[in-house]
UniProtKB/TrEMBL annotation:
UniProt entry tagged with the keyword Transferase: yes
Key words of the record: Aminotransferase, Pyridoxal phosphate, Transferase
Assigned protein family: Belongs to the class-III pyridoxal-phosphate-dependent aminotransferase family.
Gene designation per UniProt: gabT
Source species taxonomy: Bacteria, Bacillati, Actinomycetota, Actinomycetes, Kitasatosporales
The protein's name: (S)-3-amino-2-methylpropionate transaminase
Cofactor(s) listed in the protein's UniProt record: pyridoxal 5'-phosphate
Naturally occurring in which organism (per UniProt): Streptomyces spongiicola
Length: 444
C-alpha cells in the first residue's frame, strides 16, 4: 500500500513558495555545477508520486533517472534497509565481510544472462562500476585500448568522461581525458544515412572496420556498450548490431561489456536489455535500479575474467555498503514478487499506443522508441529533414512540469523527451501523465 495518495495535485505555482525559499538557500550553499531538472524540493515519494514541500503531487516519469524502479519507498526496501541500519551501518567489506554483500553477488549471478560461472564486485556508483570493468578487462587481457560508441554515456569521472560521447554538459572544460579510448559508430536507425533497414549490419561493419584499421583488435581490452543507449537518446541499436559486435569481440579475445546501468533490472521488460537479442556479455555493469534508491553498483561476469585482478586490486571503502545491499535484496524481492518485468511491458503497450496516436496529430514527433518503461519521443522541426528540435523538448518539459508531471529530456541533440516511470506506477496515473503530455504537445 502506498503511503501517499496516488493522485496528481497542483496547489501552488510550481515551484511553490516553500520550494522557492529552499532554492534561494541552495543557490548560495550548493555549487553551481550541480544542476536540477526542476527545483521543487521533495517531501516524500512513493509509487508513481513525488510530493513536494508545498503539497503538490507530481506524477513521476523520471524515477530519479531510472533508479526508483520499485518506487521511492518500497516496503521491502525500507524493511530490509531499516533492519540492517539498526544492526550495523558499516564495517568495510575489505575489513570484515558480511552476508548481504555475498547474497547480492549470488543474486547477480542468477539474474544476469548466461549459465557460466560468474562472480561480482560491488561499488557505489555507476561510473565506478564502469571504471572497474575497464580495470578488470585490462588485467585479464593485458591489453589497453577501450572501444566505445557514438552517443554513449558512461559517467562523469575522468575515465568515464573519456568514454562518454557528448561534450556539453559532461566534458566541456574538464580535460585532459584518459587515453586509449576509441569511439566507433552505433546503429542509430532513425538517423542512419541509408535508413533503418540495413542499419544494424552496416553500422556493425563500420565499427569493426574502424577497430581493425585504427586500433588493431589485438590491442583492444574491452568493447563497452549500452544495450539501449540512455543519455544519448534512448537509442535501441538496430537489430543485428549487438550480436555482430559481440561476435567480433569473442573472435578477437576482447571482453564484451554491457553497460546496463540504466537499462537493467526490469526497466526494459526483461531483467537485462541485452537478453532481447540473446547476448551473453562477458561483463555487465549495473547500478541505478539495483537497490531501490540506495547507492550501489556492480560488475558481474565470467569468473575467470573477474578473478584476473590481483587480491586487493579492486574495492573501495564503501563499496557494497551493508544498508545498500539490504536495499538491493529488497528491490530484487519486489521485482520478483510484483512481476515488474510484466509491468514494464504493460507500460510500453500503454505508452506506445498513446504516443503513436499523438504522432498522428503532431508532426513534431519524429520517432517513438524504447522498450518497457524506457520510452522516448524524438522531436524534429521537419519530419523530412529530421532537423532536431531541442527547443520543443525544453518547452514540452516545462509545460509538463507546470502541470505537475515530471519528465526528463536527453539525447545528443537535446531533442528527446524520455519517460522512465517507476514500474509500480498505477495505470490511471500513467494515462493521466500522458494526457498532460498530449495537452502540452497541442500547446507547443
Ligand atoms: C547513469 C549511468 C552511468 C553513471 O552512473 P552514476 O551512478 O551516475 O555514476 C553509467 N552508465 C550508464 C549507462 C548510465 O545511465
Amino acid at each position: 500500500m502506498s503511503a501517499i495518495p496516488q493522485e496528481r495535485r497542483v496547489v501552488t505555482a510550481i515551484p511553490g513558495p516553500k520550494s522557492q525559499e529552499l532554492q534561494a538557500r541552495r543557490l548560495s550553499a550548493v555549487a553551481g555545477g550541480v544542476g536540477s531538472v526542476l527545483p521543487v524540493f521533495t517531501a516524500r515519494a512513493d509509487g508513481g508520486i513525488i510530493e513536494d514541500v508545498d503539497g503538490n503531487r507530481l506524477i513521476d516519469f523520471g524515477s530519479g533517472i531510472a533508479v526508483t524502479t520499485v518506487g521511492a519507498s518500497a516496503e521491502a526496501v525500507v524493511r530490509r534497509a531499516s533492519a540492517q541500519l539498526a544492526d550495523f551501518t558499516h564495517t568495510c567489506f575489505m575489513v570484515t565481510p558480511y552476508e548481504g554483500y555475498v547474497e547480492v553477488c549470488e543474486a547477480l549471478a542468477e539474474l544476469t544472462p548466461g549459465d557460466h560461472a560468474k562472480k561480482s564486485a560491488l561499488f557505489n556508483s555507476g561510473a565506478e562500476a564502469v571504471e572497474n570493468a575497464v580495470k578488470i578487462a585490462r588485467a585479464y587481457t593485458k591489453r589497453q585500448a577501450v572501444v566505445v560508441f557514438d552517443h554513449g554515456y558512461h559517467g562523469r569521472t575522468n575515465l568515464t568522461m573519456a568514454l562518454t560521447a557528448k561534450n556539453m554538459p559532461y566534458k566541456n572544460g574538464f580535460g585532459p581525458f584518459a587515453p586509449e579510448v576509441y569511439r566507433v559508430p552505433v546503429a542509430y536507425g532513425y538517423r542512419w544515412p541509408t535508413g533503418p533497414d540495413n542499419c544494424g549490419p552496416e553500422a556493425a561493419a563500420q565499427a569493426v572496420d574502424q577497430i581493425t584499421k585504427q586500433i588493431g583488435p589485438d590491442n583492444v581490452a574491452a568493447i563497452i556498450i549500452e544495450p539501449v543507449l540512455g543519455e544519448g537518446g534512448f537509442i535501441e541499436p538496430a537489430k543485428g548490431f549487438l550480436p555482430a559486435v559481440a561476435r567480433f569481440a569473442r573472435d578477437n579475445g576482447i571482453v564484451f561489456v554491457a553497460d546496463e546501468i540504466q537499462s537493467g533490472f526490469c526497466r526494459t521488460g526483461q531483467w537485462f536489455a541485452c537478453e532481447d537479442e540473446g547476448i551473453v556479455p562477458d561483463l555487465i555493469t549495473t547500478a541505478k535500479g539495483i537497490a531501490g534508491g540506495l547507492p550501489l553498483s556492480a560488475v558481474t561476469g565470467r569468473a575467470e575474467i573477474m578473478d584476473a585482478a590481483h587480491a586487493g586490486g579492486l574495492g573501495g571503502t564503501y563499496g557494497g555498503n551493508p544498508v545498500a545491499c539490504a536495499g538491493a535484496l529488497g528491490a530484487i524481492e519486489t521485482m520478483r514478487e510484483q512481476d515488474l518485468n510484466g509491468k514494464a511491458r504493460r507500460i510500453e503497450e500503454v505508452m506506445k499506443r498513446r504516443l503513436s496516436a499523438m504522432a498522428e496529430k503532431f508532426d513534431v514527433i519524429g520517432d517513438i522508441r524504447g522498450r518497457g518503461a524506457m520510452i522516448a519521443i524524438e522531436l524534429v522541426k521537419d519530419r523530412a529533414t529530421k532537423e532536431p528540435d531541442a527547443g520543443a523538448a525544453g518547452a514540452l518539459a516545462r509545460a509538463c512540469h507546470a502541470e505537475s508531471v515530471l519528465v526528463l529530456t536527453c539525447g545528443t541533440y537535446g531533442n528527446v523527451l524520455r519517460f522512465l516511470p517507476p514500474l509500480v506506477i498505477g495505470e490511471d496515473l500513467l494515462n493521466e501523465g500522458l494526457d498532460v503530455i498530449e495537452t502540452a504537445l497541442a500547446a507547443v
